[in-house]
Design a protein that fits this description.
Blueprint (H helix, E strand, L loop, with lengths): L1 H26 L3 H30 L5 H26 L33
Helix pairs in contact: 1-2, 2-3
Length: 124
């Protein structure tokens, strides 16, 4: 019973961190900021999910070290790849900047542009 609660907490924490890292990747505007969100938040999220899987394997199925190897690989490669991506970004300053991410404006967003300022429009 207690192990189920621990596994559930690890799964929820992992899902939240992974979701926040994914949103950060989509919403942040510069490549340096885009690198930061997935390397920090998603690494902790996937690490927590793997920890939940490892606890489940040891408690209910006899144990396996596959999750531990995956976690070690993840924690070693994520900072190294982020470092290389950051170095590439620093060396390509003479190239055009990357386009901004898509905005939050959807079909249901009320547009208050210059034409909408002033008197309200009446449709007859």
């Amino acid at each position: 019973m207690i192990w189920d609660i621990v596994i559930s907490v690890c799964l929820v924490i992992g899902a939240i961190f992974t979701f926040v890292g994914s949103i950060g990747l989509l919403k942040l505007d510069t490549p340096m900021k885009r690198v930061h969100a997935p390397t920090k938040a998603s690494t902790l999220g996937v690490g927590s999910l793997l920890l939940a899987s490892m606890i489940h394997a040891f408690v209910y199925e006899g144990g396996s070290l596959h999750e531990l190897l995956i976690m070690a690989f993840l924690f070693v490669t994520a900072p190294i790849s982020a470092n290389f991506i950051s170095k590439v970004n620093l060396h390509r300053e003479d190239v055009d900047p990357t386009p901004p991410p898509p905005g939050d404006r959807t079909w249901s967003t009320f547009d208050t542009g210059p034409a909408d300022v002033g008197e309200p429009h009446h449709i007859d």
